[in-house]
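Recap quiz, item 2
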Amino acid sequence: MKRFLCGRSLVSAMCVGLVVTAAFCFVAAAGAQAAPAGQRNIILATTTSTQDSGLLDVLIPLFEKKTGYFVKTIAVGSGQAMVMGQKGEADVLLVHSPDAEEKFMAGAYGVNRRLVMHNDFVVVGPATDRAGIKGTRPASAAFKRIAAGQALFMSRGDNSGTDAKEKAIWKAAGIAPEGQKWYQQTGLGMGQTLNVASEKQAYTLADRGTYLALKKRLDLVILVEGDRDLLNIYHVIEVNPAKWPKVNAAGATAFADFMVSPETQGVIRSFGVDKFGSPLFFPDAGKRAEDLGK
Amino acid sequence: MSRPGAIIEGRGLRVTRGGSVIVDVPSFTVEEGEVLSLIGPNGAGKTTLLQTLSYLTKPFEGELFFRGRKVGPECPVLTYRRAIAMVFQEPLLFDSTVFENVASGLKIRGMKRGAIREAVTESLGRFGIAHLSDRSARSLSGGEAQRTSLARAFAIRPDILLLDEPFASLDPRSREPLIEDMQAVVKSTGTTAVLVTHDLLESLRLSDRIAVMDRGRILQTGPPEEVLNAPVDEFVATFVGTGTILKGQVVRNGRDTATLSVSGREIESAGSFPVGSHVILCIRPENITLSVPAATLREDGAPVTSARNVFAGTVTRVTPMGFYQKVGLDCGFPLVSYVTMQSRESLKLARGRSITVSFKATAVHVIKKD
Amino acid sequence: MELILDGVRKAFWLLVTSDPEVMGITLLSLRVSGLATLVSLIIGVSTGTLVALTRFPGRGLVVSLINTGMGLPPVVVGLFVTILLWRSGPLGFLGMLYTPGAMILAQAVIATPIVMGITLAAMQQLPKKLRLQILALGATRLQLAWILTKEARLPLLAAVMAGFGGVISEVGASIMVGGNIKGYSRVLTTATVMEASRGNFDMAIALGLILLVLAFAVNLVLTRIQQKERPR
């Protein structure tokens, strides 16, 4: 009965609305890109630790100013960052998960993997140290004590570099913690996980940079540090343009070159000194990963 | 093609919904300048026919001609719809001021601002609501709202006004003056109007012609007195309040009259009919006169009256109907009469009272039954 | 408690000094969510009106889909929009991922069913005969739709509020498709999440408060319009 209202004009009005909307989206998108037009965009997939520590807030503007590129920093875990690289959704990676990185390189997803810097991981926990791990080395021995004492341990559980490192230590300790009552996974970034650990008075593995950045808010102390196994090594990897033609290869190279340039390395060395009294990262450009910590 | 003088002509109008026929009107005409009302009981299809005439309810079968041009191919639907105006039982006002409401039809037509103001002011004045111009439509009383709705319809100077029970939900106090005002506006502007109503009195009072509908069909169309006094069938007779409807047979024909046998009694009517044919007799209650037997008897025992039909009867029932009394009678056949309160008292009408009943031969309307 | 006071103080200070970064973030929030709401209004009102005014087979299904869409989880929207906009995805050629445009798109997808659903309900609340009355006044179908929209303007204003409120406070989709890029696609919600994870709780609270004030102010304005229009 009301079929007559389904008239052509109303439908066409709707179509006009849709077209306007679509046009609108394009304009908005194009407008947003107007400043860093076309291939001036670089998508950097990196870890939360580099963003949460504030290092990238210092480095990216320097790079943009110098080269005119516009960097879109997507801070995710190292695992997800590498998946983005594998799918060609990122142009360049700054990651810290060496085993996964080697697999990535073996799959020819990336080119020109270069060492940028390192800092180290620390095992943190409540000052009361219920499991009594303070000063224990290697880290795997400390983890064994945590397991033996069934002390609450917070894991990132998010496939990040830190998560990969933590799993490697459990493996070295010969323990499969997953499913244990004292072993909990937050699925969150480093900062969030530290907050949770602090609230629950649990142990966790953290990169020193993020820990230092958050220290004043945390009720956690460093219990294990300085072990060679706890090195946290960052590499920059350019996504292989041969696999993904849409990748901004020139931009990726420019960013990677920037990261290992002496000037940038100097900035990394001094970053955080004013705030925390000690550097958060140690520049390593040109070194070999095997030589670190020796 | 179409008849001269017809503003709307419908041919083969038919609306079916869910398999059942709602409207089935083979031929229908609205004359230029007339007020035509569609009456009938609920569900007769009056509103659907009106909406079909308005070209708002599609799909329907049949053709509609506006001043001789077929709506659709010869006269664009929008042109036709802009020649009509419609008022519903509900005021259906827009959520804005009275002025804006009355202006809405003109705005839709893209009229210039000055012309709109002029037309709106005139229409508001005609319906006596100029003082409400700036009021919010939501703050109006029922009567004021319906006045606004009518003013809105008239503002566009329609060729045809379609009214769907516009007075049905008003209280008598606002209803009476509004009917009068509307009648005046219709008359002075010469607007053609089609009025749907189930109220016989309202339609008698407003219409030039009445169309009685039942179950989707138009049973009779004619001037009010014709429909009232000469219903074409039992249904129309009942609907227009005929009161007495009797089955009879033609006995013989006189010069201008016919003698009909009803339950063994003889009743005279005007006209002549084939002897022996079965007929239905309709007698309106206001045409039956009651009198007390003793006072008016002639020497031969018949009552003194000019009426051809005089019967001795008994009162079976007296029902107060507001301004008049409905009296049921038994004269060997049942009859219904209306009397005033005064007559009821002077004649001492009560159940079982013997009374003389008389009516003229011309009061008897005969419907041939085949 | 001290933390909250710190946050309030910081928020006040950021606003008073009109900190350029925070101002940028706030303006971007308003722009992205405002445009997304506008887009959702254009699509939602037209489609909602169309669905309200027509009868067609499968209409019931469409109506329940719209109503379900009103509760569309933002992260799900974010996920699907991300996949669509990937370089390797069907809309990859637009190069829209990690742009404010992508955020507008995702937020519009979230807000559109809300606007559509409320429009549908508002239109269906209008008397059925009103449509006939409007057509009888000589309206074209476009004029009919426009007048009905005007008649339903108060509930539609509620649709604007619901849509805008839904998207400006949304974080999941924005962070996924926008990437929380500093000075580019960082809005109040994503910045709040990031500052919290950085442990800068005072800053997080300050940003949260600004978001609250913003949402409140927009709703206040719309509510005042709505209440002014109420019948006396």
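The longest helix of chain C spans residues 20-53.
Chain C touches chain A through 47 residues (CB under 8 Å).
End of item.
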